[in-house]
Amino acid sequence: MTNSNVAKKSLPVIAGVDITTDAEGRFNLNALHKASGGEKKDGPTYWLALESTQNLMNELDKQTTVISVVKKEGRHGGTFAHELLAVEYAGWISASYRLKVNQTFIDFKTGKLQSAFDPMAALNDAEFLRGTLLTYSEKVIALEHKVEEMKPDVEALDRIAKADGSMCITNAAKHLQVQPKFLFKMMSEGHWIYRRAGGKTWLAYQDRIQSGILEHKVTTVERSDGSEKVVEQVLVTAKGLTKLSKMLGVSGVAA
Question: For residue 113, which of 6, 3, 9 has the smallest C-alpha distance?
Answer without folding.
Answer: 9
